[in-house]
Structure formats: C-alpha cells, structure tokens
Amino acid sequence: MATVELTTANFDEVTGKDGIVLVDFWASWCGPCVRFAPVYDRSSAKHGEIVFGKVDTEAQPELAAKFDIRSIPTIMAIRDGVIVFSQAGALPESALESLIEQVEALDMEDVRKQLAAHNH
C-alpha cells in the first residue's frame, strides 16, 4: 500500500479507526528523513493491512505542534485510535519491522486498562 499524506483535515479520521497506523513526521530538508523514506516505503509495501501515513511538518505545523514533535523524523504508532509508540530518529529496517511486530502483538484491552489506571 502506498503511504497516505496526513493533514489536519484527515489525521483524526485516519488514525481513529481500528487497526494500526504508523505515522512518519518528516520534512523535505531533513537528511535523515529523506534517507528513512525508502525504508518506510518498503515496509508499507510489505504490510498492506497497516496504514502508513506521512506528516510533512513544514506543511502541517499544527499537527507537529499538537504532538510536540521537536525532532524529525519521528515515528508514531497508533493502534485502534490509541498512540502506543512515539520516538524521534530514523529506524533501521529491522527496528521498524520489530516495532510493527510489537504493535501487532499488543493486547489492546490491557493497554486501555493501563491508560485508564494512569489517567485516574
């Protein structure tokens, strides 16, 4: 599946659904972002059931601000509408694949219980 451009107009709709959405916060002037892009694209081709989104932080500064993105690239993993991972830095392909496996293996009922306990 090709990557999806995420904007303020479609971000909540795309990330609020059931399933996994990976988000790459990037900018065209960012060398590590440009080098990470082919890794991200290859992974998106392997995992058709996952939405691979990209947020251009130059074009979407309000999204970058909303998620306190201070360094790019930043990779965020969202499952069933819940942010379960967010980390700055380009990931090697093996680490991105490992992240996907870990997000797929999450017990979302347990994640929601932990979130509820943390918020009380």
UniProtKB/TrEMBL annotation:
It comes from the Bacteria. Keywords: Disulfide bond, Electron transport, Redox-active center, Transport. InterPro entries: Thioredoxin, Thioredoxin-like_sf, Thioredoxin_CS, Thioredoxin_domain. The keyword Magnesium does not apply. Transmembrane segments: none annotated. Gene3D superfamilies: Glutaredoxin (3.40.30.10). Residues 1-105 form the Thioredoxin domain. Belongs to the thioredoxin family. This is Thioredoxin.
